[in-house]
Amino acid sequence: EADIYQTPRYLVIGTGKKITLECSQTMGHDKMYWYQQDPGMELHLIHYSYGVNSTEKGDLSSESTVSRIRTEHFPLTLESARPSHTSQYLCASSEWEFYNEQFFGPGTRLTVL
Amino acid sequence: GESVGLHLPTLSVQEGDNSIINCAYSNSASDYFIWYKQESGKGPQFIIDIRSNMDKRQGQRVTVLLNKTVKHLSLQIAATQPGDSAVYFCAETNFNKFYFGSGTKLNVKP
């Protein structure tokens, strides 16, 4: 069982609200990732980090932002949520050397009304 | 972006039979090719991977085959069990990024 946690698991909010999705891992992994996944569809990388103070954008354009102030914590923020942001958001982490093996959190299912 | 596609979006097999899930990829520069299992309401779970310089790797009840000539990846599950029912994704990575396919749903009939 991977030690990576996401909160909240489910979130329903109104348009225009600011939200932060939390992701924490206790494995000491340097690399962390955020993916967006629509039901039954592939995962799209939206942000990743090599370590503290490192953040990079993924291939899928996203209006979200991330920060990496501590190794274990990689929160994702939406300044103004819109219905198009409705999706599942998955956080993952991996070791620097064994980057091929990602460990995923349970996901946050976000619905924006 | 990279393209990782899957054949057969839904696969139904009888319990005890072997399952084969296929995947096509497009990036020859990837270091690893990986299979994930995703159960309903959960995040993907790593099953097995294969390095780009290999053509076969075996795990417990699972085997991954890599054919670089036709850019094809497959996952074989031996003696499929009800607990194997899930969506399976292939992915490829070159250290910086991961590219996922759209998933194959495996239904195991008792």
Total strands of chain A: the figure is: 11
Structure class of chain A = mainly beta
| Average pLDDT metric of chain A | 93
Poorly predicted tracts of residues of chain B: none
- If helices are DSSP runs of H or I spanning 4 or more residues, what is the number of helices of chain A? 0
Apparent shape of chain B: globular
Following the backbone from N to C, one meets helices and strands of chain A in this order, namely EEEEEEEEEEE
**Oligomeric nature of the chains:** heterodimer
- What's the N-to-C terminus distance of chain A? 34 Å
Portion of residues in helices of chain B?
under 10%
Q: Give Rg of chain B in angstroms.
A: 13 Å
Tell me how many strands of chain B there are: 11
- Mean pLDDT across the residues of chain B is 89
Strand content of chain A: over 45%
- The best one-word shape of chain A is globular
What order do the SSEs of chain B take from the amino end to the carboxyl end, as H and E?
A: EEEEEEEEEEE
- Report Rg of chain A: 13 Å
In the predicted model, the low-confidence regions of chain A spanning at least 5 consecutive residues are none
Question: Can you describe this structure?
Answer:
The complex is a heterodimer of chains A (113) and B (110). Chain A has 113 residues and is mostly beta strands. Chain A is built from no helices and 11 strands. In chain A, strands 2, 4, 5, 6, 9, 10 and 11 form a 7-stranded mixed β-sheet that branches. In chain A, a hairpin with a 6-residue loop joins strand 5 and strand 6. Chain B is 0% helix and 55% strand. Chain B has no helices and 11 strands. The chains are: A mainly beta (113), B mainly beta (110). At the A-B interface, strand 5 and strand 10 of A face strand 5, strand 9 and strand 10 of B.
